Amino acid sequence: MAKTNEETKFLDEEDKIENRSVPNTKLRYLEHRGNRNNMWRIFNFVLLAAGSLLILSPLWWMFATSLKTMAEVMSYPPSFFPESWEWTNYIRAWNAAPFTTYTINTITITTFVVIGSVMANSFIAYGFAKIPFRGKSIWFAIVLSTMMIPGFVTLIPQYILFSNLGWVNTYYPLIVPHFFGSAFYIFLLRQFYMTIPTELIEAAKMEGASHFYIWWKIGLPLTKPALATVVIFSFNGAWNDFLGPLLYLNDENLYTLQLGLAVFKGQLSTQWNYLMAGSLLVLLPVILLFFFFQKYFIQGINLSSGGK
Amino acid sequence: MKNIRISMLLLTILTLTLSGCAGFQTSNNEEANVNEDGKTVVDFWSFWGSELRRPIIDKIVADFNESQDEIEVRHTYSPWGDIWTKELAAIAAGNPPDVVINDINATAIRGKENQAMNLSEFIDEDFSEKFYPELWEATLYEGDSYGIPFNTDTRVLFYNKDAFEEVGLDPEDPPETWAELEEYATKLDVKENGEYDRLGFYPLWGVGYDVWLLNANGQNYFGEDNNTDTVNINTERNVEVLNWLKSWRERIGEDVVNSYQAQIDSQQGNPFFSGDLAMIVQQPTFYQQISEYAEDLNFGVVQLPEYEPGSGHTSWGGGFVAEIPEGSSDPEAAWEFIEYLTGKEAQTYWAVENFDNIANIEAAEAASESDELTEEGQMVYQIAVESMEDTLLTPAPVEAPGFYNYINPQVDEFFLGQKTAEEALAQAEEDVKNLIEENQ
Questions:
Q1: CA-CA 20 to 30 A from B83: which of A128, A273, B299, B414?
Q2: What is the residue-averaged pLDDT of chain B?
Q3: Which residue does chain A place closest to B97, by CA atoms?
Q4: Left, alpha or beta for B63 (phi > 0: left; psi -120 to 50: alpha)?
């Protein structure tokens, strides 16, 4: 996520610089257009490459640490390349806890959370964007205002609520809330829906389609880029969630990957090399997902151009 | 419409299938504390999940369960540190586990805040005598105990006997006082071309400044029974101790201190193992690393030296208690398990397998003679047991939770040269006094 923000920022800045220089040097610019274009391309390339390297360096650090021995991890000055490449760290890390079970558990939770987030938020957002009803803006403001409440404030009351429902030590507290929408996604999707012409909806209505049908047949397909954003964010959120599983799961057979990674952090010492090896394995799906959805993701986050 | 129906159908099927999975089965809270055989289930949470500790605690639990007809203990691992966040939420919801391992230093505070149960109804008159008095006292709030000490630690001085012999020191006569410590350390230094081939000693590796303050004073910052009417932070002696500590740093040099520190942190590369460092203060469990990484090292171990002859070999420790969270469904059964956990058999087993200090005196003495330890192991454990007699805990008074967060930054500024020892300690004392006032 950080990557895209940074990258788009870079691009924006590039644009600004270019735009600024155009009027002043318009003539010369036109004369040496080919030359300048090349210059710009090289400049862009170097700048972006440097930026990428900078952003990738923590990832490299993680990777390098995961292949070091504990002695090398702690050595001073630190080494940039591992001396001996300890690939067995990965096997040992994976076997330090039942990570296979944790993976299945995490995938189960994440799948439901993603389905819930996409369906519920899209449905709610459609309503806010395209169905006129009384007090709509007030309701929308109330929904948005929930974003102002820090998660930690509602943590204990929420726990008590789920505990009274008998849901502690199940996946329900981790999944069910996502089927009821979240202000951030609702806002994101509503803005996207606003760019869809109302005529389209009205035309469908005249043909006798219900709102549910329109949402399913027209709304969902047209908002794909924004939905990709929701997929990535909710996937990331569920996949990386530590506090939720920590609080609600008591049975170790239900634990998730993030809880499993905590095994390497002990009272007296931290097994950094195993922690990094484990973290990299856990990070892999997130990176893959990002690569697959990257195109949509950037379209989706860039709301101004999203509907075009 | 067909599409919708098919999708909805699939979703329903998926939901129904998954509701067969464990994570989707809800259980009735009231029935949860009895198992299929009608035994009472005791939920036991610890943070011992490592490859070393997990099997040891699981064995203790299994042994207990085997000896029981009425109770079944179920052990759950939760991540270190976060386990207590989880516990707090569970207590707030009235659905806590029955036994939790928790930090001994905040036991009184948890008692005050009604998070841990008052255990006095279970405790016999002479029950407390089983444990080191310093540990027992840390569990008391207004005279009642809120947790039973489980394991603990202390700080002792390890030294390299070969290095002692090499410079003409008697390897059986380690330093007894700070003056001797300093004298021996300089003798043990080997410097060539301005670089250290061997360093005698540096006091702040392995322990913090507070251990030396404790050692010099023979008592913590607060008054008797941790009462906060007295605050002894800005004292002449403390100023002297801080300056003494800094003088080591100045003599040895910042760079040397930092590069040695990095090696010590690496565990395996500790300069004490290679003979590049002649003395170091560590926990007795350090012996485990010696036997792993420097099997042939000829080392001795001794209690911390005295500030001045007769002032006492005061050392510093911490530890963990087994406690029953407020709201536990079956405190009687939980107590039975705690009694076993802190009893001689389980404690000795834990001590020997982990090479860890334990709270039960009888068990500690048994462990120091255990055949399962090597001769060296017995020697170290013996000193550890002796040091326990002189070990102080620094539990936070209920009026000053987290008081060290107010002292540490000041002392850091002193070591960085931004403040004199007097200025730093005066500010620290003022901050801690303010904290106490706020909490009164």
A1: A273
A2: 89
A3: A250
A4: alpha
pLDDT at A33 over 90: no
pLDDT of residue B2: 62
pLDDT above 90 for B32? no
Q: Return d(Cα B107, Cα B398) in angstroms, integer.
A: 10
Please give the Cα distance from A31 to B429 (Å, whole number). 74
Residue B19: how many CA atoms within 13 Å on its side-chain side? 10
Helix (H) or strand (E) holding B140: strand B140-141
Structure tokens at B26: 């809800």
Q: Are B270 and B264 in contact (CB under 8 A)?
A: yes
CATH of region A97-264, choose from 3.30.470.10, 1.10.10.10, 1.10.3720.10, 3.30.1490.20? 1.10.3720.10
- Give how far A4 is from chain B: nearest CA, Å: 32
C-alpha A151/C-alpha A149 separation (Å) is 6
Beta-sheet pairing, B279-282 with B319-323 = unpaired
Question: Which residue in the block uniquely carries the two structure tokens 């964007």?
Answer: A129
Residue B279 has a pLDDT of: 96
* Closest CA–CA distance from residue B85 to any residue of chain A (Å): 8
Instruction: Establish whether this prediction's ipTM goes over 0.85.
Output: no
In angstroms, the CA B76 to CA A191 distance is: 46
Closest CA to B142 of B99, B112, B117: B112
Measured over all CA atoms, what is the biggest interatomic distance in chain A, rounded to whole angstroms? 75
Class of domain B156-316+399-439: alpha beta
DSSP bridge partners of B301:
B158
End-to-end CA distance of chain A: 23
pLDDT score of B193 more than 70: yes
Query: Could you tell me where in chain B the CATH 3.40.190.10 domains are found?
Result: 29-153+318-392, 156-316+399-439
Residue B130 neighbours by CB distance under 10 Å: 18
Q: Report, in angstroms and rounded to the nearest whole number, the Rg of chain A calculated over CA atoms.
A: 24
Q: Under CATH, what is the fold of the domain B29-153+318-392?
A: D-Maltodextrin-Binding Protein; domain 2 (3.40.190)
| Interval B314-358: pLDDT, tens | 999 999 999 999 999 899 999 999 999 999 999 999 999 989 999
Residues 178-197 in A contacting B (C-alpha not used; CB under 8 Å): none
Select the residue from A69, A265, A269, A271 to test the B interface by mutation, using most B Cβ atoms within 10 A.
A265
With the CA atoms of B263, B267, B269 and B274 taken in that order, what torsion angle do they form, in degrees rounded to the nearest 10? 110
